[in-house]
Amino acid sequence: MTLHENEVPADGSVVRSLLTAQCPQWADLPLSAAGAGTDNTMYRLGDDLLVRLPRTPDNARAVRKEQRWLPRLAPLLGRPVPAPVHAGTPTEDFPLVWSVHQWIEGDVAGPDTVRDWAAFGTDLAAFVRELHGLGLMGATRTGDLSWYRGGGLRAYDGTAREYFDGCRAVVGTELDVDALERLWHAALALPDSSGPEVWLHGDLKPTNLLARNGALHAVIDFGCLSVGLPDAEHSTVWDLPSLARETYWNALRLDESAWVRARAWAVVVGVSGIAYYWHTYPAFVAECRARLRSILTDAATR
């Protein structure tokens, strides 16, 4: 499934060629597709490894960022996160950097895998508090660590308007895009967060949260890792049930302004996902729709 105009194709035969050339000790291990997101394609390698291939040159920059920073961050975090064990280099078959990670057991967080959503929200808040509390180790909000969601909302307003229009054009009256845009503008009227800047995972949606024995076990996919203001970090809690969202908010003691700004980021990421992936990635569009419906329901009851 191709999602981007500049996508670099990669299938199992490409992965085998990469392993043969750069990791011959693993080249004969069983290989199976292990999912694909908007930015990367994954293959499970044997029982203990995962091959991660970026879809585009821009996504390759995120892979390189994971290779640099995850070995330094992972030992400081209390829950498992991906640990790169090989930093792959470009070849004729695949002209981008790529990675091999340790496989982390677990299932995507969802109604069939999470036993107690209140506890899950509290545990996720604890992970966020821990990550945000880590020293920056000399990292600054520059280059690949300056992802847009770690900045202020106003700088993104022009692009957001285009996505609101694009979403409105494809969903029609199915979603109240006007109401969503009002939530965005309500956040724009607030002062920006005063900081401080922290480490941000950047995309703590359920597909990046693994559960075991009914509870949060691991956090994966640090491709959006950045340094910035924490508001957008909280935006993905609208992908979780309301009970998890409430316990998360209470555990972090977020004030109303932070919540409104986080909701605005959730809105704009949702409408942009619908506008961009409408014709190419229906499963992701469904995720965005569900998020936006949750936001509208939540806003109507507050």
Automatic annotation (TrEMBL):
Q: Which residues form the Aminoglycoside phosphotransferase domain?
A: 33-264
Q: Does the keyword Membrane apply?
A: no
UniProt xrefs under Pfam families: APH
Keywords per UniProt: Transferase
Q: Does the keyword Transferase apply?
A: yes
Q: Which InterPro entries match?
A: AGP_Transferase (IPR051678), Aminoglycoside_PTrfase (IPR002575), Kinase-like_dom_sf (IPR011009)
Care to name a GO molecular-function term for this sequence?
transferase activity
Q: Which domain of life is it from?
A: Bacteria
Q: Can you name this protein?
A: Phosphotransferase
Organism of provenance: Streptomyces uncialis
Its taxonomic path starts at:
Bacteria, Bacillati, Actinomycetota, Actinomycetes, Kitasatosporales
